[in-house]
Amino acid sequence: MFKRWQFWLGAGISALFLLIALRNLHLSEVWDAMRTAQYIWIVPGVAIYFFGVWARTWRWDYLLRPVKKIPVRRLFPVVVIGYMGNNIFPVRAGELIRAYLLRQREGISISTSLATIIVERVFDGLVMLMFVFIGLPFTPMPRWLQGMVIAASLLFFGALAVFMTLAIKVEWAEVVYGWVIDHVVPARFRPPVRGFADRFMVGLRSLRSGRAVLMLFLTSVVIWLAETVKYWFVMHAFDFTVPFWVLMLMNGIVNLATTIPSSPGYVGTFDAPGIEILTLFGVDRAVAASYTLVLHLALWLPITLLGLWYMTRESLSWREFTQAEKSLA
Known about the structure:
The protein is an all-alpha fold. It is 74% helix and 0% strand.
């Protein structure tokens, strides 16, 4: 389904981050911390996490309303399968799978769906930055953290400005991308590329309303606060305590880091920043590593299992997902 170079690039980046995560660690100490953890705390964490998944589904419904109103109960399995795809395929392929399934079930074009999904990611990034900014005044600033915050700020604030401009200045945007297509794209590819761009613009309609932008931002805050509450519940399984804002900072940093291409499941890119943040606040490195690894698994496994269950219930095959790559036109 995906190019070999994408696999090896992701594997190489994950290996680098794992080396950072494992340095100065005694694995026997990590195992001792995991062995003595009180895993019952994961149960309420998983419950609040799935509340966040429901909120993600409602947000996507809100983004799609200018195109088509779809009940949340019909969207929820599509969202879950998409997040499962992110966990087991490289380069966040679950987003493309989600758009493909929505076209198959609801008749919404893939390019329109992708526009709404990209808008979701932009708002997610902005909330992650907000979480980081809340913690920065109280946080030692290593050089890697400074660089990540600067790069992410430029990326997400820049993307929001571009998409809001495209959504509001529709005629201007059509002129600009029409000129680019006419002067850059070979003639035989112009009609499908123009069609893709036109349908992509449809997916940005929700950004024309200030009220809608505020609703999307507030819903994104609720989503990520719910995930941070899961971090808080899982923390109680281990022998350390940090303030809630530290977990918000950790959540922001690890999720910004997972935008970097890596192996499926964000191996390494989730773990290394999480361990580093906790050790900055005095948590023993072995305990920080055991907590981060368990948290990572507790985030990965439930949504992946539920996605597999929905695949089985709806008679989807892995081969069907390979069609997603061919369906962008």
